Amino acid sequence: MQVKMLNIFEDCSKWDDYVLKHSAATVYHMSAWGRAVSASMGHDCYYIYIEDKGEICGLIPLIHIKSRLFGNSLISVAFATNGGPIFDNHSALELLDEECRRLSSALNVDFLECRNMAAIHDDWPTKNETYSTFRKDLSPDNEENMKEIPRKQRAMVRKGIKFDLKAVIDALPDRLFSMYSESVRNLGSPVFPKKLFYCLKQEFGDNCEILTVETSEGQPVSSVMTFYFRDEVVPYYGGGTNEARALAANDFMYWSLMAHAVSHKKCRIFDFGRSKNGTGAFSFKKNWGFEPRALHYEFILKEGGKLPDINPLNPKYQLMIKTWKKLPLPIANMVGPLISRSLG
Q1: DSSP classification of residue 173
Q2: How many CB atoms lie within 10 A of CB 249?
Q3: What Pfam families would the database entry show (predicted)?
Q4: Is the whole model's pTM more than 0.90, yes or no?
């Protein structure tokens, strides 16, 4: 077995083929994710794989985030909710772990983080009480999918339908970014650079769509960027206007996406993504009938280091969050990417 490094801006077909066939892989393991992040924010990517007799038998995508504000880290996968190693056997995993430790030392990182869906290492420092993921099987019959939505949430979807909302597919992320940037400002979070959205759409092509909800007058009120991976639909970046809640636009949006994914993309799994435990987003997803499943984020720490706690629930960030909510949107959109590129 040999340890090798992929240049993600060259031929990635063997890497991507392995990801598409591996049962534990996610859309974030695809080489397109790293290219979009690197091209839009300038981060170095270390895409490590193990080769045996000319075939890949394990891999881990790592993105290097070096920041004065938030430290020096390697993350699999940065700016994504999942990642970590995927492998065929324990020997391949051992080689990946060994190379991760070597690279962590060479880059002098504070920590290396693997954002695993399930536990992999029994002896690594782990966070498994912060985030949950929400996934659910879909029926090929959308009438059945509507019935599966709990009664109160189904009423919200029907409320949006009664307002004569309509869902359209946008070719470009401009309307999405306008609503997303306002939404994250209102939450007190810095927005990612607009270039990231353009790069993701370019890299993933037809496997990335932007669904936007309009009123009967054509006014956009909510929008979401979604990825398609095998038979999975993965909504990721979403936002809405101040009018969205009264119109139940977000409820209508996710139902429209679910129905579209089934009828046009033949999807059989809806991946509602990650939410912090105990938050409004966590409750919103449970209201749809999705059951939370703990995510297992595992770490290699520098000697004497502690588990990082870079999340909005950390009390030391509360003043910054309160201040950010009050910023005029143009200023937040100008300054935000300078900060968010370091969050990972």
Answers
A1: S
A2: 28
A3: Acetyltransf_6
A4: yes
Instruction: Reduce the secondary structure of 215-250 to three states and give it as a string.
Output: CCCCCEEEEEEEEEECCEEEEEEEEECCCHHHHCHH
Residues of the chain with CATH 3.40.630.30: 2-130+295-307, 139-267
Helix axes 151-162, 249-265, angle to 10 degrees: 90
For residue 94, how many other CB atoms are within 10 A of its CB? 14
Tens digits of residue pLDDT in 77-118 = 999 999 999 999 999 999 999 999 999 999 999 999 999 999
Contacts by residues 117-120 (CB-CB < 8 Å, ≥ 24 positions apart)? 117/24, 117/26, 117/82, 117/84, 117/295, 117/296, 118/24, 118/296, 119/296, 119/298, 120/84, 120/85, 120/93, 120/296, 120/298
- Nearest residue to 48 via CA among 80, 89, 77, 82: 77
d(CA 280, CA 236): 16
Give the right CATH number for 2-130+295-307 from 3.40.50.1240, 3.40.630.30, 3.40.190.120, 3.40.47.10: 3.40.630.30
